[in-house]
Amino acid sequence: MMKLFLFLKLFVVLLILRRNPANMFSFFKKITVSKGELRPSIYDYNVKKLDGTTVPMSTYKNKVLLIVNSASKCGLTRKHVDQLNELHDRLNERGLEILSFPTSQFLNQEFPNTCDISSFNEKNKVKYNFFAPIEVNGENTHELFKFLKANCDSMHDMNGQLENIGWNFGKFLVNKSGNVVSYFSPRTYPLDIEKNITELL
After folding, report:
1. Do 25 and 85 fall within a single domain?
2. Is 152 a catalytic residue?
3. Signal peptide position in this chain (predicted)?
4. Of 4, 14, 23, 124, which sits 20 to 30 A from 60 (CA to CA)?
5. Alpha helices per DSSP H over the chain
């Protein structure tokens, strides 16, 4: 399974190079973000739902947040959707909010339009919060994800640049005060971090 995962990552590199070599470096280029570029709090940002409605992050004050970059057509999707739904069922009433942000940055594994994403979510009975597609790496990284990376120690390299999210289903855990507590890789499944979440509720 790990060999297949590494092969897919290599394949996406070759695909980008073939389509447009110049995009290779903007996509994988690490970025540097100064504190002055960031808003003081995660609650100062706005995000958009699939229907285009703007949602202030302040909506989620005093909640524990699990913020995920997702894709509908990834090999990791089925297990993640099932386990995220399970976490929602068990912990939402205790104060957990799951926020999923689709992206096409990894092998174009997300549908190109929001109608298809919505249909996929309905078919798979997604229960948690779902938002409009964004970019999570490179120069066009969404402002919220810049904030998440900048405020997570494990997402800084030795040169002070922000690390790239490696694939679909990276996960940031945020406590009730809006502080980024941890980042979990795509290979860490949601139920594997249930204890980390419950300790913050």
Report:
1. no
2. no
3. 1-24
4. 124
5. 2-19, 21-28, 77-91, 114-123, 143-150, 194-198
* Phi, psi dihedrals of residue 36, rounded to the nearest 5°: -65, -20
CA quadruple 71, 75, 78, 80: dihedral positive or negative?
negative
**Into how many domains does the chain fold?**
2
On whether both 136 and 163 belong to a single domain, the answer is yes
Residue at token pair 């609650």? 43
Token pair of 170, please? 């990276």
Entry pTM: 0.87
Instruction: Kindly state whether residues 103 and 6 are assigned to the same domain.
Output: no
**CATH number of 59's domain:** 3.40.30.10
Tens of pLDDT along the chain (201 residues)? Answer: 555 555 655 565 555 445 444 444 445 678 888 778 899 999 999 999 999 999 999 999 999 999 999 999 999 999 999 999 999 999 999 999 999 999 999 999 999 999 999 999 999 999 999 999 999 999 999 999 999 999 999 999 888 899 999 999 999 999 999 999 999 999 999 999 999 999 999
